[in-house]
Amino acid sequence: MAAAAGVVLLVAGCGSSGGSDKGGSSAATGGSSSAGAGGGSEAGGEALTADAVRTEIETAATGAGFAQDATGDAVPPGLEKCMVSWTADAEKAADPKKSYTDTVATLGKGGWKSGQNFSQGGSTIQTLTKGGWQLKASDHSMGALKMVMFIASDTSATCEAPFKADLEKNKKS
């Protein structure tokens, strides 16, 4: 479980420590971004919750042809209100790359703002932000490997302590 949590945190924080990512450091590394400084609320004034983020990801992904992989990584205990992990069953998707692209486009239409995009060796990681949340949409569906994940982290100060506690716990494991 600790290894799975490490992978989740690695993907959630990928590319954000170098300062080129819009919004500052990742919540996965314990930092908070300027997007989270406003209390994690959307323009309408209501806070974006983990349940709302999960619903938005699931609606966009299933609408694009993905089904959720029941064996995907679970959110580490204590981070349920600060993190969302949604793994697609890319093996069952007719065209995982197209479904990934369509999912990201649908999230964009739903108010998620595109940030840093990283592509290498057939893998793509797109950063999106909304309401104090940072989403890493990752597509590793090239060749035999078919893995598509959507991992979101609340970057507000409220979630800083739980992320730090989880990192410390995993250092000891």
Write the layout of secondary structure elements.
Layout: H1 2-13, H2 50-63, E1 83-88, H3 96-109, E2 113-120, E3 123-130, E4 133-140, E5 147-154, H4 160-172
Antiparallel strand pairs: 1-5, 2-3, 3-4, 4-5
What does this structure look like?
Helices cover about 30% and strands about 20% of the residues. It has about 170 residues and is α+β, with helices and mostly antiparallel strands. A hairpin with a 2-residue loop joins strand 2 (about 115-120) and strand 3. It has a 5-stranded antiparallel β-sheet with strand order 1-5-4-3-2, with helices on both faces. The termini are close together. The protein is globular, with a radius of gyration of 15 Å. Helix 2 packs across helix 3 (about 95-110). The model is unreliable at about 1-45 (pLDDT under 50). It has helices at about 1-15, 50-65, 95-110, 160-170; strands at about 85-90, 115-120, 125-130, 135-140, 145-155.
Main attributes?
173 residues, alpha+beta, 5-stranded antiparallel β-sheet, 5 strands, 31% helix, 22% strand, globular, disordered N terminus
What would a concise description of this structure say?
The protein is an alpha+beta fold and 173 residues long.
